[in-house]
Amino acid sequence: MSEKTKTNESRQVTYNIHQHLGSLGISRNGWTKEINIVSWNEGRPRLDIRDWSPEHDKMSRGIGLNEEEVLNFLALMQGINVKDLGI
Prior knowledge:
Layout: E1 4-8, E2 13-26, E3 32-40, E4 46-52, E5 63-65, H1 67-78
Antiparallel strand pairs: 1-2, 2-3, 3-4, 4-5
């Protein structure tokens, strides 16, 4: 995905998707759950996980992680057997 900047006028939020890392799945309404590197309101880029509309002009609430949080998350996940989670 190329770098692009959009403004959602109804919320007055600006965002820049610097890099698309991958998609985790697609919902019935056609939105995709994605992992991207995004900066919000001209802030520092963060790893971002959320649902996006096909045009990337609408988004759900999501989670943003800085570098330390990404490292902590990866360390936690390494010791987990997904089948044991019951999800």
